[in-house]
Amino acid sequence: MGRITVTLYTDDLTGERSDNTTKHVFSIDGATYEIDLIPENHQKLLEAMEPFVNAARRTSRSRTARVKQPRGELSEAAKVRRWARNNGIEVNSRGLVRQDIVDLYEAALGR
What we know:
Blueprint: E1 22-28, E2 31-37, H1 39-55, H2 76-86, H3 99-109
Antiparallel strand pairs: 1-2
């Protein structure tokens, strides 16, 4: 017996079915959200947030966020450790990298 799987995409705001929905991610008060929207509702979201985004300061991604690295790529922590060792800075081989070392690394990269 064969099986057919049908995926229906819907706008999370209206429940409207559409093949034109896209996922959008945003954060507020330390919580990250994702929502699937059709282009018109995405535009409404952008317009509603515009005055707040324009008044806000952009920050870099959290340094403590865990992101899976594709195989073969070094994690950000591994890059910091390698840079620190190459520059004569003592750094632990596991666990969190001290913030002062991360700051030195980012300054060296011009971030």
